């Protein structure tokens, strides 16, 4: 753990940030884009499931491992970051209101999450009545195509909700705050990095992911609970990688076969990219 009072703490944090940026950017630009281009050419569900499994393990190790290591290093900066952000009027007002409301505040957050799910379901049901629905980002190939792939969609969604929120809403902002001393800069850098890592989805995917990341960050700052952001993130991804394939394409009725070329075509119906 790096002590904020240590004379060379900022230097050490800069080294850690440089290493993290190198790892994530090289991974996104070279590995993710190359693997996703290859994934889009797969017809065999065996190959698709193998890639899903690879992505799940890689995400848990890379993002999960990075978040654990970073939080161990910069944990003392987390309360300093939150205290600095509390200095912003709107954050202080939201945080105070949430704390004072007690069970009411929790009920409101739960209601908003349920509204997100219900609204998503209604939108998806309505989408079944049209031929195509525009998607934000190049994400159509990610949607599971049968029952076996659906399990990986659920696992990827839950994993992303946990490891990505710990990393980009908590660990990275604390790290950047330790270097800059600015809560606003810490939040901005984490959001830009989160969006940039979705470059494999194209420019639209980067923009969409940045916007959704901003909403998740706002939710975290307003409630002061990273658990709320984790659940919201998981719900957004479950909507994309489970709900849409089930409701629109009824993939839960299709067993995982070695070759899915004869299965019905799948429509582009996801208005937001999985994160």
List the helices and strands and how they pair.
Elements: H1 9-39, H2 45-74, H3 77-86, H4 89-101, H5 103-127, H6 147-180, H7 183-196, H8 202-223, H9 226-247
* Average of per-residue pLDDT values: 82
The value of Rg in angstroms is 20 Å
Strand content: under 5%
Instruction: Give the termini distance in whole angstroms.
Output: 29 Å
Q: Report the total helices.
A: 9
Largest β sheet strand count, sense and barrel closure: none
Q: What class would the helix/strand composition place it in?
A: mainly alpha
Which H/E pattern describes the elements? HHHHHHHHH
User: How many domain units?
Assistant: 1
In quaternary terms, these chains amount to single chain
- Which overall shape is indicated by the principal axes computed on the Cα atoms? globular
Helix content: over 70%
How many beta strands in the DSSP annotation?
A: 0
Low-confidence stretches: 258-265
């Amino acid at each position: 753990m790096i002590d904020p009072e240590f004379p060379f703490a900022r230097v050490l944090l800069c080294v850690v940030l440089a290493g993290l940026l190198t790892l994530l950017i090289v991974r996104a630009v070279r590995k993710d884009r190359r693997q996703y281009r290859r994934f889009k050419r797969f017809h065999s569900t065996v190959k698709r499931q193998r890639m899903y499994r690879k992505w799940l393990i890689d995400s848990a190790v890379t993002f999960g491992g990075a978040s654990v290591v970073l939080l161990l290093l910069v944990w003392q900066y987390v309360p300093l970051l939150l205290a600095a952000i509390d200095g912003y009027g709107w954050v202080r007002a939201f945080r105070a209101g949430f704390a004072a409301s007690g069970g009411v505040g929790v009920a409101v957050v739960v209601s908003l999450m349920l509204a997100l799910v219900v609204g998503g379901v209604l939108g998806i049901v309505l989408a079944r009545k049209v031929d195509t629905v525009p998607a934000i980002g190049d994400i159509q190939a990610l949607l599971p195509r049968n029952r076996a792939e659906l399990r990986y969609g659920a696992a990827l969604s839950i994993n992303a909700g946990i490891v990505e929120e710990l990393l980009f809403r908590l660990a990275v902002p604390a790290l950047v705050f330790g270097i800059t001393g600015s809560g606003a800069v810490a939040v901005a850098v984490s959001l830009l990095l989160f969006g940039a890592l979705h470059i494999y989805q194209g420019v639209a995917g980067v923009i969409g992911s940045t916007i959704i990341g901003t909403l998740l960050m706002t939710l975290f700052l307003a409630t002061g609970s990273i658990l709320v952001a984790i659940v919201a993130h998981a719900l957004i991804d479950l909507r994309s990688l489970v709900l849409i394939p089930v409701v629109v394409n009824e993939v839960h009725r299709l067993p995982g076969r070695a070759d899915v070329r004869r299965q019905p075509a799948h429509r582009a119906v996801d208005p937001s990219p999985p994160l």
